[in-house]
Amino acid sequence: MNGGVSVHVVDIASGRAAHGLRVSIGAVGEAAFAEGIIDARGQWPALAALNERFGVGVYELRLQVAQFYRQLGTELPAIPFLDELVYRFGIGEAQAQAHYHLPFKITAWGVSCFRGGA
Fold first, then answer.
1. Using CA atoms, how far apart are residues 77 and 81, in angstroms rounded to an integer?
2. Considering the entire predicted model, what is its pTM?
3. For a Cys staple, 101 with which of 15, 30, 95, 116, CB 3.0–4.6 Å?
């Protein structure tokens, strides 16, 4: 796969895909150009149709972590540790044609991500 961005989210607290997690993405300083829900495989498949939207620039991926865990019945404090997780990343000129895969591992108390798909 060339260009674009893909997202994969695993709920490591349960060892399963974060099915039902709400996500959105957009360029920094602009409204989100896509919103979606992570599927049963842990992916956001509709994002593939938007690969042409990802040129040189800085983007924010937003994951609704607290909402996801509350939907699962997890008791969280009124002010959760992770509420809306904002992950800001950049695509530079030299990488504009490369694919950016963002694999997230989440719990209500932590997150891990790196750039895959180089």
1. 8
2. 0.92
3. 116
